[in-house]
Amino acid sequence: MPERRDIEWTTEDEVMFYDTDVGGVVHNLAYLRMIERCRTKLAARIGFDLPGMAATQVYPVVVRTEIDYRMPARLGDLITTRGWIDEWGRARFWCRFEMRREGTGDLFITCRQALAVVQMPEGKIVRLPRDVEGLTP
Amino acid sequence: MPERRDIEWTTEDEVMFYDTDVGGVVHNLAYLRMIERCRTKLAARIGFDLPGMAATQVYPVVVRTEIDYRMPARLGDLITTRGWIDEWGRARFWCRFEMRREGTGDLFITCRQALAVVQMPEGKIVRLPRDVEGLTP
Amino acid sequence: MPERRDIEWTTEDEVMFYDTDVGGVVHNLAYLRMIERCRTKLAARIGFDLPGMAATQVYPVVVRTEIDYRMPARLGDLITTRGWIDEWGRARFWCRFEMRREGTGDLFITCRQALAVVQMPEGKIVRLPRDVEGLTP
Amino acid sequence: MPERRDIEWTTEDEVMFYDTDVGGVVHNLAYLRMIERCRTKLAARIGFDLPGMAATQVYPVVVRTEIDYRMPARLGDLITTRGWIDEWGRARFWCRFEMRREGTGDLFITCRQALAVVQMPEGKIVRLPRDVEGLTP
Q1: Is the CB of residue A14 less than 8 Å away from at least one CB of chain D?
Q2: Do A92 and A116 contact (CB within 8 A), yes or no?
Q3: Run of H or E residues at A100
Q4: CATH superfamily of C8-126
């Protein structure tokens, strides 16, 4: 199936000491923090910007993550994280992410996350709109 | 398929401020940090103890995570994380985890992680032993 | 000046991979996360328990931290964090912390934190009570 | 005493969910992670670049942090962290940091950190060079 990359975003990170562990490579949690920043910018593109969400308390929450660790990144590596919206359903949507070394393009990570939109603090799930600007059917 | 819980471990965490976010609930990364502690103790039961790993630089690394966020935990909740070894292959093994509220047993999280054993810092994958004490075939 | 250790608390942590960095030792932020857990339990002893704070939104916030990194802890070390209330003023109070290797007693960290009590989300500072049970004048 | 800002660096951060806690504001640890990125770039300016450090295992480590939390930042805030080298001794040097809201200039944080240069993994302290390019006496 061809992937839909109508709405996408790219972020960059330079691997810092706090991203690494004693194994000499980036810790598995650090990639997910980097992905969250990409996902947050991606969500802003479909109407969920941070100040707006802080005000309304309606925002997308991760309900499932699948992540594959393919090659380890190291201190000082420049990581490019590209995220795009992959599927758009009634109650949830899926994002995909690829993390690569800038320059060589070596693939560190592939990841897929399902998100639901909830009204906090109740946690009530909100129905997704059918049409999102920029997302072709 | 019946799950194999021959080798399992349980850890407990009390939800702290640093585990939460402005949404009023535990942040999705915090559960994975709690799971890592459980997984580390579980790995020690099959021979991968922390001081030993620090010396040999041979240790299990996560190669895939699948995690489902079922219900959010909140500040002060007591979380019980139970982990067990689910499948044991030649090059990788799978662990499963359940995170529940202590007392009520409410299910917050289910998670599955595949691990490979590597020699660091080269990252060379090490063949798994066929027989692990305590793991019945 | 003799220190007041009327109200104190001790927590324990085993150093995990996520606590370390590529330098081979515990990362400077990880100690502060461990200290926060000790401080939170200490605060509960003077009436600021987590469920209560989540309900009232009145809680102590750190307004200043001073921390000295004296010796690095490593993967698998067992760290004992002892915290106590050191000074009690009108608008703020000070806690002190010592982090040592269990067994040998080697001193990793000394730390001092000033806390104010605030009403969130406004951030309004609340006057401290003069008498706290267990804290002798 | 006039401060020396011969060598300085500025980084920017947008406050993400993982930076916040249930109190509705940025968690005290998150500022220190942002400061570390600024400090790392600042260190690169005096010869401690990340790939070089990963190779030689000689790098600056924080030996003391003093941080004042003056006003809380919130989700979506843009934070400018400015760091500069303040004092240069034989065995340690001090950096200073200010974190402000972009645009308004509101002051969130002031911080001071002492660093020593060590050879890892032994942790042996290395004498500082007397002359650092760009740092006027």
Answers
A1: yes
A2: yes
A3: strand A92-101
A4: Hotdog Thioesterase (3.10.129.10)
